[in-house]
Amino acid sequence: MSNTKQLNRSLGLRLVVVVVIGNIIGSGVYKKVAPMAAELHSPGWVLVCWVLGGIITLFGALSNAEIAGLLADTGGEYAYFKRIYNRFFAFIYGWSLFTVIQTAAISSLAYVFAQSLHSLAAIPTLLPSWADVNVAGVFYPFADLSMKLTAILLIVALTWINTKGMKAGAGLSTAILLLVFAGIFLIIFFGASSSQADLSRSFDLRTTNNTPVTFSAVFAAMLSAFWAYQGWAAIGFVGGEIKDAKRNIPRGITIGVLTVILIYLLVNATYLSLLPVEALEDVYAAGNKIAAIEAVKSFWETGGFFISVLILITTLGCTNATILASCRTYFAMAREGLFFQKAAALNKAEVPGNSLVFQCVWACVLVLSGTFDQLTDMIIFAVFIYYGATTLGVFILRKKMPDAPRPYKVWGYPVVPAIMVLFCAALFCNTIFVRPREAGIGMILMLTGIPMYWWFLKNNVRKEEPVQEVSRV
């Protein structure tokens, strides 16, 4: 069944910026400063990594914006890759979304939601005697089981709601984002102005262990920063609903990413001024604490409740948006015979219910498989392979389509996209070295797409059909 109905172009530049920022700001702004401090042992270097991560993210976003401006109506990277490379590579990307990138993002966000809920009301410990049960010394499914079950319940509940045809309007997205902004700026204002704050400490480049900071440590810390910056590419999925998309997508990406960089620098400088690096290392070692909560508690005794509610709102919104949006790619793949056939069906509410169920089951398995930081490192390792591929597409499309109108051309070409491609390659290699377990698991899950591609071709032979783009707003 084909569906060529065109979407209404109702989103202007303001709402494009809302979508970009809303898909970026999630759990990372509250939690990732702790693993970065544990890796670098220096508050100043933590801020340096936030800046470097922001610059690289901006380079990638600007490169992506050229392709989005050129192919604005095609629906994101899955469709871009079919034009830039071939159907096989596009499938591997879509399969990676399912096995690693998007499902692990859902799992990670839900896990932070559970941690925030635990800080509000203690969740009873379940099966503590089973905590050391493991699979190959890698997976500990029963460690922090009560936290993981809470995350699983959230994923199941939000999946069920979305099967009923849940709508997320642009007005609601704006309201949630304004609420999150207000909460973050309250932390910055009252935290930085409190008597406990020492802003000079935030910029101290000395390490607490008196050892120099290595390139590998910087790259490892940037994995955490990149998780916090992750999500800007989501705007490609709503290209068909944006007014003057070929102009507003590049402008919206630039404004949105620059805004987030500024917010992250301010709020992380505040965390570092309130908590010494040693305290942040303890937060990371504890495993079930959130840096933002501990920082707010340092100047506001009952502030843990406020920040926990703020994190609940933020992660709930991000989890729901990711669940809602991600399943559309697998639905489109199934319509082309490149995913499980049941995922191609729409339910009575005219949403891809089976695709939502497939996604839900695998996301729940990933919750049981590892911790928050393990999952996010695995995501960043995987996603930067495709960021590099998209950026390389700038060079390929300029050769393939030299005369095609480009409303936006990446600033600093060819230097800026070249730096992004080289950085993605360096991050890929360094992650294998410093995070071999996460890189290995991520690579294995992605490479399962090779036999699956041929299996789908053999068993789900279908004519490729046009699929209606679905809004992520």
UniProtKB/TrEMBL annotation:
Organism annotation: Rufibacter sediminis
**What keywords is this UniProt entry annotated with?**
Membrane, Transmembrane, Transmembrane helix
Among its keywords, does the record have Nucleus?
no
**Which lineage do the record's taxonomy fields give for this organism?**
Bacteria, Pseudomonadati, Bacteroidota, Cytophagia, Cytophagales
Note the topology in the membrane.
Answer: Multi-pass membrane protein
Gene3D superfamilies given in the database record: Amino acid/polyamine transporter I (1.20.1740.10)
Top-level taxonomic group: Bacteria
Membrane-crossing segments per the record: 12-30, 42-62, 88-113, 133-158, 170-193, 213-240, 252-274, 305-331, 351-372, 378-398, 410-433, 439-457
Its recorded name reads: Amino acid permease
Q: What is its main location?
A: membrane
